[in-house]
């Protein structure tokens, strides 16, 4: 497999632009497409999959909370409903803020891990040359 073939394969994955660019930098920096490069890319993609899985888990938990809230609200009278709805809206805003904060933390950690892995790759390449 050539570098261009590998890049075309990566493009077909539909990754986030930043991640795709990072992988392209790894490919361009490598002397050839070899097992080390392919394993590094696979590790990066595994980390991306883990990120998506954690994000999906957060959304599943959020959906469960909405379902529970709906059930509770359907049992209340109108006055209690309005009070709880206001409390829910405030809690929702806080929860969405926390979710976004957590997602950003996960992205930051993932990006740091990718940068560390890229540095390791560069050091390994330099050590072998």
Could you characterize the architecture of this molecule?
The chain is mainly α and 129 residues long. It has one domain. Helices cover 88% and strands 0% of the residues. The protein contains 4 helices and no strands. The chain has helices at residues 3-12, 17-29, 35-74, 78-128. α1 packs antiparallel against α2 (17-29) and α3 (35-74) runs antiparallel to α4. It is elongated. The two termini are 22 Å apart.
Which helices and strands, and how do they pair?
Layout: H1 3-12, H2 17-29, H3 35-74, H4 78-128
User: Unreliable stretches, pLDDT < 50, 5 or more residues?
Assistant: none
- Structural class, from secondary structure content? mainly alpha
Average pLDDT metric: 87
Overall radius of gyration: 22 Å
List the quaternary state of the chains: single chain
Q: Give the helix proportion (percent range).
A: over 70%
Number of separate helices: 4
- DSSP strand tally: 0
- Outline, from the CA principal axes? elongated
Q: Beta-strand percentage?
A: under 5%
**Overall tally of structural domains:** 1
* Major β-sheet annotation: none
H/E element string? HHHH
**First and last CA, distance:** 22 Å
Structure described in brief:
With 129 residues, this protein is mostly helical.
Features:
129 residues, 0% strand, mainly alpha
